[in-house]
């Protein structure tokens, strides 16, 4: 591994996502200006309440755009590091002043949201963060820090595939057809098929419908992963994309995170010992199975970070129990 590393920002998660945010804000600002300019008061010299409201909205959009760009760059600064220091942009921090470090865990993102990232705290300096998904070479950066700065040797990883067919697996999954996202997906695909059958002679339209259908299928399939667990392996599968099977040897896993992003289904993030990370959303798994899966992983000495299962346990076994006890006493 080289002794001098420069960060490489992710094209999709940094550049493309930032462009999407800016485009969205630009269109919002354009719409506000157009509505304001075409308002029936535009030819008068008087300033009405509606005009003031449009002005406030436009200024708000400018502030929001500025904040987003600043927060994005702050969460993904340009980084260069070697054995002596790490540089964020033009600011240099020496490893000799390092006070605290965290290579995994949730770190500040836009607004009040948080994402997986790195925290570095230096003596007499402010704490610095950077987020995993913003860089194409995050695993390389983390491995460098672990090996050269923390002093931990890289762990040997065994192949994921051999021996998996001899294992006895327990599946953790629900019924995909009972999941509302899956139901809406197949209803939408059914509608596209119906439109296509009624316009069978229009090749251009059929190609368009096929593209929309494949995109919707791919998007909908992101939410219906499920998991198989044996004594030695953790396998990720998908209800819709039945050919998908990602196999992890438990000995190669550094941490499994049970997380639930805002208004999203329960998910599992697998972080391997080389710091490669992958998130799998599993909207079909019932609450009871989430609890069982967490317990079984911990029994196999897998490091688990629980960010939402504890809430299920509280609701099912504490809150509901107390409510039942209250009604029992009332009777």
TrEMBL record:
The chain crosses the membrane at residues 12-32, 52-73, 178-197, 203-225. This is Uncharacterized protein. The keyword Membrane applies. The lineage of its organism: Bacteria, Pseudomonadati, Bacteroidota, Sphingobacteriia, Sphingobacteriales. It comes from the Bacteria. It comes from Mucilaginibacter paludis DSM 18603. Keywords: Membrane, Transmembrane, Transmembrane helix.
């Amino acid at each position: 591994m080289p002794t001098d590393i420069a960060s490489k920002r992710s094209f999709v998660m940094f550049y493309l996502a930032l462009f999407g945010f800016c485009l969205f804000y630009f269109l919002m600002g354009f719409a506000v200006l157009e509505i304001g300019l075409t308002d029936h008061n535009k030819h008068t010299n008087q300033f009405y309440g509606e005009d003031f409201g449009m002005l406030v909205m436009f200024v708000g959009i400018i502030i929001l755009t500025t904040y987003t760009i600043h927060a994005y760059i702050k969460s993904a600064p340009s980084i260069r590091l070697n054995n002596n220091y790490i540089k964020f942009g033009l600011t240099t921090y020496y490893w000799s002043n390092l006070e605290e470090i965290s290579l995994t865990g949730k770190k500040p993102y836009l607004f009040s949201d948080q994402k997986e990232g790195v925290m570095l705290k230096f003596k007499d300096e402010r704490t610095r963060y950077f987020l995993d998904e913003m860089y194409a070479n995050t695993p390389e950066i983390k491995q460098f820090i672990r090996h050269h700065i923390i002093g931990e040797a890289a762990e040997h990883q065994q192949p994921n595939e051999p021996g998996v067919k001899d294992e006895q697996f327990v599946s953790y999954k629900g019924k995909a057809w009972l999941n509302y996202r899956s139901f809406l997906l197949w209803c939408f695909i059914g509608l596209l098929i119906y439109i296509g059958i009624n316009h069978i002679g229009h090749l251009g339209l059929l190609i368009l419908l096929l593209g929309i259908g494949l995109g919707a299928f791919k998007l909908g399939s992101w939410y219906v992963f499920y998991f198989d667990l044996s004594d030695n392996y953790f396998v990720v599968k998908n209800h819709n994309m039945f050919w998908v099977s990602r196999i992890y040897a438990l000995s190669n896993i550094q941490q499994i995170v049970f997380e639930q992003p805002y208004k999203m289904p329960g998910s599992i993030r697998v972080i391997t010992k080389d710091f490669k990370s992958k998130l799998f959303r599993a909207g079909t798994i019932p609450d009871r199975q989430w609890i069982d899966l967490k317990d079984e992983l911990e029994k196999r000495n897998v490091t688990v970070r629980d960010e939402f299962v504890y809430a299920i346990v509280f609701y099912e076994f504490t809150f509901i129990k107390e409510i039942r006890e209250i009604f029992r006493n009332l009777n």
